[in-house]
Please model this.
Amino acid sequence: MNAAADLLVSGGLKAATVEAVSDVSGVSKVTLYRHWPSRQAIAAEAFGQLMREHLVVPKTDDPPADLVSYLVDIGAFYRGPLGVTFAELVGACANDPTTAAYFRTFFLDERRKGFATLVERCVESGYFRADADIDEVIDLFFGPLVYRTLVGHASVDDRAVNSIINHAIRGLRADPGAV
Model:
């Protein structure tokens, strides 16, 4: 995984071939194929590892601030070099159900679970409405960031990320009149 992660950082999905992972790690290609069905599957798992290292879900006594901080960090991650790799992996998922399954298992599920804890804390604190559906809230926040990263039609700079956050929060507030 470390070899695959290093290759993703240095050259994106194109660089993370089975041959390159084998060369860098010293693990035979046969062994790699015993554990992963494709280079995209290896890359998806390694990308999940990179996300864990770069994005830690904050946990202070201020759930709304933690939520905003985490989303701002994600926006910065997506507009960085690994954002391109993220888009490449999503593209690979579109044509390969096996890659999609690895991506969901090793990247998406963990990200959603971590963010769900932030949303739940916002609900429990009374900041968000009690009837907020956690999965829909996750999609509400991440959808625009992912879409902008994939399509490239608009920025994921800090101003845009904060605007998206503010629009979503306005609809989720327990007290709609609160700022």
